Amino acid sequence: MTGALLAIARKEIRLALTYRISFASGILSALAAVFMFYLLARFAGRGAPGLLDAYGGDFFSFVLIGIAFQGYLSLSLDGMAGSFRNEQVLGTLEAAAASRTPLSVLALGSVLWQFLQASWRVAVYLIIGTAVFGLDLSKANLPAALLILVLSVAAFAGTGAVTGGFMLVYRQGNPIRWLYGSASMLLGGVYYPVSILPGWLRPVSSLLPLTSSLEGMRRALLAGEGPAGMTHELVVLGAYCILSVPAGILTYRWAMRRSRRDGLLGGY
Amino acid sequence: MAEAAPAAALTSVGMSFPAGLPGRMSLRRVPRKTVFDGIGLVAEEGSATAVTGPNGSGKTTLLKLIAGLLMPDSGSVRVFGIDPVRGHGLTAGMTGLSLSGDRSFYWRLSAWANLEYFGGLQGLRGRVLRDSIAEVTDRLGLEADSDKPVEALSAGYRQRLSLARALLHRPRLLLLDEPFRSLDDRLSESFAGLLGEMRKAGAAVIMATPSVEEAVRFSGTILEFPGRAVPPPSGKG
Questions:
Q1: Cβ–Cβ of B121/A10 closer than 8 Å?
Q2: Which of B193, B110, B123, B208 is nearest to B157 (CA)?
Q3: Over the stretch A23-64, which tens digit does the pLDDT of each residue have?
Q4: Interface membership of B31 toward A (CB under 8 Å)
Q5: Which residues of chain B have a CB within 8 Å of the CB of A3?
Q6: Residue B97 DSSP class
Q7: Residues of B in Cβ contact (< 8 Å) with A106
Q8: Angle at Cα A16 formed by Cα A10 and Cα A19, nearest 5°?
Q9: A11: which chain B residues are within 8 Å (Cβ-Cβ)?
Q10: CB count, 10 Å around CB of B186?
Q11: Are strands B95-98 and B173-177 parallel, antiparallel or unpaired?
Q12: d(CA B117, CA A92)
């Protein structure tokens, strides 16, 4: 498997080097986003009194952590499906499927590469935010942040495998992912604390993995909290891992069987 | 046990595809269109088999079944005694597949880089991979432009690149879809020579072609589509 992953990494790097402007524009977009949220934070001031106290009281830090890590979670959701879709459109999926490397490893390699790119973007967000715009990470509890990140990625990757399976068979995303993604963006607390949601929506929000993921990440990075203070977040993310990972594996197996039965690997 | 089994053995194989657009979401059961039924074939190591018939008769489907890219509706497919779907990791390493058409490469990467990638997926690394690429590009006349992006290469070059990819890992079973289609006389001769060498070394070759003349020239065993199934000889496999 290591040899196949290295081959995939080398191929992805070579392909990325043929799109150099895209790489540069990605960094510029990240810079522009950081600056935009800095200006928004200055305009909005400290937001509604008390709502941001648990995260250090600063809207810019709050939203920057939100957009930086939401990218990881989107990737976990869409990376596998995106990889399959890309290979379908290029026409290389069937050729790769004819090799001894399973398509799951192919998707894993591609997603790992995308994670590296996402990490680079997160690093740009955090470095620029800290160096230029006063993001304060001095209290950060890095082991707790890493634990939240690993659990979040696993929880979302299970759903990502479900989406990947749908993409193999139907060549489009599935409605569950659309609902899940839209609900997460609306109720997950990327741009605002979930405490400003209407009371009847808060229970729904608290069950979404994105909410727990961002809440845990902000508390770890901005307030320096450890795992002991994040029991609810850890339980929600753990439960999603237990549910979504087997669902993802089963869906992927179904999709491979269906693809071979209906001859779907060669089309797009 | 697996060493004694034929390179490929198909018994009463039937295959169908959903009628209409593939992959459509539907709550109703989608009717299927039969491609063929009751097909049998045994390809021993070192043998040459030609599958012939008009376009759309199922020749490529048969190759994909043997390569484990498709699952049959009925019957059994075995590659060196192994189910190529369930044991894909094993059989794919022993099988080389070249399909006609040129939409199976990364067009922005060079021919060489594409071969490095697909060779890597077949488990080749380092010097072994480089030597293997050098050998197949030489035998198929690809070395001159192997540093150019695939999008800048001719359709004929891309077809030969597909053959090169199939040969990279020295497979014991070669599945070739219209392999001579884009080769000029000199390269046809060179490629036929290469196939001959591989057969002498024990590799089995199954080739699909619409040309009966080419099938007769290439092979002692001919499977003619549609509908004329050649049953596997008894006592073998």
A1: no
A2: B110
A3: 778 778 888 888 888 888 888 766 666 778 888 778 888 888
A4: no
A5: 120, 123-125
A6: E
A7: 121
A8: 155
A9: 106, 109, 113, 116-117, 120
A10: 9
A11: parallel
A12: 11
- What's at A108, amino acid-wise? L
| 8 A C-beta contact, residue A160 and residue A79 | yes
Overall residue count recorded for chain A in this entry = 268
Asked whether the predicted pLDDT for residue B3 surpasses 70, the reply is no
Contact A98 B105 (CB under 8 A): no
Rounded to whole angstroms, the Cα distance separating B135 from A261 reads 36
- The Cα of B224 is separated from the nearest Cα of chain A by a number of Å equal to 22
Write out the two tokens for B158.
Answer: 């891309």
**Looking at beta carbons, which residues of chain B come within 8 Å of A7?**
116-117, 119-121
Q: Give chain B's length.
A: 237
* pTM for this entry: 0.84
Q: How many whole angstroms separate alpha carbon A258 and alpha carbon B60?
A: 19
Token look-up 């070394």 returns: B201
* Residue that is written with structure tokens 């192994």 in the block: B82
- As given in the structure block, the two tokens for residue A25 are 């524009």
The tens digit of pLDDT for each residue in B42-78 reads 999 999 999 988 888 889 999 999 999 999 999 999 9
CA distance, residue B24 to nearest chain A CA (Å): 6
